[in-house]
Amino acid sequence: MKETFxxxxxxxxxxxxxxxxxxxxxxxxxxxxxxPSMTRSMQRVAExxxxxxxxxxxxxxxxxxxxxxxxxATVVRTAxxxxxxxxxxxxxxxxxxxxxxxxxxxxxxxxxxxVDDPIADVVAKLAYDEQQTLADTAAGLDTVQLGAxxxxxAAARRTDVYGIGASGLVAQDLTQKMLRIGLIxxxxxxxxxxxxxxxxxxxxxxxxxxxxxxxxxxxxEPLRVAFERGAxxxxxxxxxxxxxxxxxxxxxxxxxxxxxELRPAAxxxxxSQLLVVDCLFVGVxxxxxxxxxxxxxxxxxxxxxxxxxxxxxxxx
Amino acid sequence: MKETFxxxxxxxxxxxxxxxxxxxxxxxxxxxxxxPSMTRSMQRVAExxxxxxxxxxxxxxxxxxxxxxxxxATVVRTAxxxxxxxxxxxxxxxxxxxxxxxxxxxxxxxxxxxVDDPIADVVAKLAYDEQQTLADTAAGLDTVQLGAxxxxxAAARRTDVYGIGASGLVAQDLTQKMLRIGLIxxxxxxxxxxxxxxxxxxxxxxxxxxxxxxxxxxxxEPLRVAFERGAxxxxxxxxxxxxxxxxxxxxxxxxxxxxxELRPAAxxxxxSQLLVVDCLFVGVxxxxxxxxxxxxxxxxxxxxxxxxxxxxxxxx
DNA sequence: GACCGAACCGAAAATATCTTTCATGAGTGA
DNA sequence: TCACTCATGAAAGATATTTTCGGTTCGGTC
Lengths: 316, 316
What we know:
2 copies of one chain form a homodimer. By secondary structure, the first copy, chain A, is of the alpha/beta class. Helices cover 55% and strands 7% of the residues of chain A. The first copy, chain A, is globular and about 55 Å long.
């Protein structure tokens, strides 16, 4: 009998070793995010869980193992990977998810975009998918990590942002915005430049890498250099277990939406990354509001001026 | 290889003789209804359960017993009385209830982002705003104009995309994607380059200008040149009455969401522009599917290879 | 005021469920 | 081909839940 002590029910559960708190409704997103790093058996389990939360919530660990043709151990492993201490907690979350789905509106499942879809359908489906991506990302974002990253950025002497390809544009977006509120940020255009820059970083600086795959060498390399130089490093990636996280003090996970031939992964990852970047920006702007406010106002001013040149500027 | 393939999870005990199916969300009511027929200890348990479903869902039977100063047996008895086969099922229902309650009180995000908003609120509000922007954009997009622009792009000998600042990133995004499916597109980095390029355009080419304000000279100028050279011109702008539309054969309108000091207009306009650009891209990819398909597949391949380097698996 | 019966209640045994360990074998890269 | 890693499930081990059973309290009765 372990009469230890009442485990202080009300409060938040002590986040186990994982670091990522259990997801409430972001489970489907999490499954998609982590699916690539799962083994086949675990994928089967994850698929079953994501496909029928209500049904799986009614199953014991043994039942789910049999249903998916795997073993109890695999089920537990999957639960762990999804961020729960064990199957019991996954099951609880599943029940919650099922209840939400039930009470909520229809799942509104959309089909993939087809080659012969009329243009109006394309618009509707793309908009829906991106909205979904945003919701997933927001739900799956670790606010603790985010807060830490914000704090680091706000206090940084200078910030380097690394990204290649589509992620490079996101990197530039963040850089532009940071410059606009008076922070020093760079987004080196190519890898060599990035590494050269990274060498200059030291404690108190921040290096931020953006890569969907989590394994883009061109981005990892400068981050590694920055990491070793003592800079605070942040990674924005869709693969929280990818190599890039090895050198990241803080990891921000972007969601991975289902993709189709006509809707490459790059689209949803970009949407997801931009949301994260926006969150970082706003968070930082809050922190340094005193000094950022004039800059923000100045931006306003400049824009208003442009608009003013137009016509009756219906402001706002 | 024991592909026994368990038919259904049915193996579990049938719901006891009770006959009453587990209550979904009417738990609080049920507690009140049954309270009179409960013993004192059971009432304590029922009260705790009804008062803090989320908290109780996190407790084991022992924990709840201690919290209420009763015993496990009493907790189980209470669960039975409430219509569940046992505590385990009550707990599951509790988790569902908690999730429902949580999701129920979501619409508090109608306010602007404040300086002292906690980071979690920032995430929620930003995501919500961007979703709103997407919905607005999709609703306001003229599919006829869009279709015409798609047709022009798909048939173009070459395409120039103009954009400055944040819009410049969107321009680059479109350019990257078009190149990836074998179309010739450029996004000149500065105005002079843009104009120089524009001079080369002629009938059968497309020039596409992206500007939120609709009056950005750096973007209008090259578009004007292209227009006069006989190229088909497209404008993506938030001001369908702005100067830029003067030289545009097709105008695609982006939505302008409300902005606040901490959420500059650039954010929502970017989201909006990207959606439009994605629609253009997908539309074009549909039109030239025959030639684009191999390129799209090749992109896939390249990505898969990257992933392959990470770990061995490629489901999907 | 004392006795009796019934029902409440909790401690601990019994059972079910979940978690961990460990040996095996499939797949991979050299 | 061989060594090696890692996924995998069987079974042991740990926890949680359910049941059993006897003590206790309360209300009614004589």
